[in-house]
Amino acid sequence: MRRFLLPTALLIAIWLPLPVLAAPCMLVTLTGTMSGPALINGVAGAGTLVRYGDDSAGCGTTKLQFDAGRGTVLRLSQLNIDPGRLDAVFFTHMHSDHTEGFVDLLLARWNWSSSGAKVDVVCSSDVSSPLGFTMSCGKFVTHIGDAFVQSGEIAQRVSEDKRRLAGGPAELAHLITFEPRDEPQVVWTKGDVKVSAIRSTHVAGHASFRVDTPAGSVVIGGDASNDSPAPPRPTSTSAQVERLAQGAEVIVHSTMHPVMGPEHDSGMPPPVYYRQSLTSDLGAMAKRTGAKYLMLTHLAPQVRATHHGPYKVPGGALTEADYRAAAEAGGFTGTTIVGSDLATLRLPAQ
Ligand SMILES: [Zn+2]
């Protein structure tokens, strides 16, 4: 009888365990894709989670949350992420569709992780508008638990569990503010991870962020638009965001589809329309900066919605293809991801 023997080298290759490769990787997840305060079909408020680590740790040693709109903690729970484990939360600006989920997030951390580390909260220092108001992330964070202190709940829960901080959730926030500038500045670091910020325009105090890691770089534009508030202007996108995004693989950006423009009959007030970046202009910007991926989020209007809040979508609901076509009309030839909640991009791609 003939025997079929495998070559010795092949046998060794089969029996030896594969070496564990600790290659760096990054995950970019949209925790919410709603634009503005509108309520549409369970879509969560604006936010992006950036995780970085290596393969053996699920790319998740460092966890950074950018903006925290309505429902952020619920989306994080779907990813099995404990709010107590976030390293830092960054705010692009003080609009409730980007901030209201922070209350939930910090209350959850206070309830279950009061004795743990504080969470870094990184945002613009106070900025006063010539229109007579001041945007203050500092006050927002300092007063985040006030309603629950005033209701008596904080004292009641502290009486049940003395590990909870007596001052409420605000005591768990470590506020880090920066003066927004027209050039990138480093605002946060941890190990291999560096986060930079740049001033951008939408409302006073708006900033955009960039995360650099050995696995790649992602820019979080927020609601940025051009410093010129309305046409005539060369583009609706921000020159500062374009500077920040040079060479980054991924751009995550809020967008307005051109169909909502004043030349159609959406009813959207022109200033609301003009203070976002149009999808076609974002496609052009992503082409110029060399991005491989454009993740569209904060969609106005949402895909398959006939209205955006009180404003109708001229010509009927849009599809993902309509958004991709708009980005491509701007010249973008990379991959356009039309944002839905929990859409995730991995770098490097697998
Ligand atoms: Zn917004």
TrEMBL record:
Q: Which UniProt keywords apply?
A: Signal
Secretion signal, residue range per the UniProt entry: 1-22
The molecule here is called Ribonuclease Z
Q: Which InterPro entries match?
A: RibonucZ/Hydroxyglut_hydro (IPR036866)
**SUPFAM superfamilies recorded for this chain?**
Metallo-hydrolase/oxidoreductase (SSF56281)
Per the database entry, which stretches of residues form a coiled coil? none
Q: Name one GO molecular function term.
A: 3'-tRNA processing endoribonuclease activity
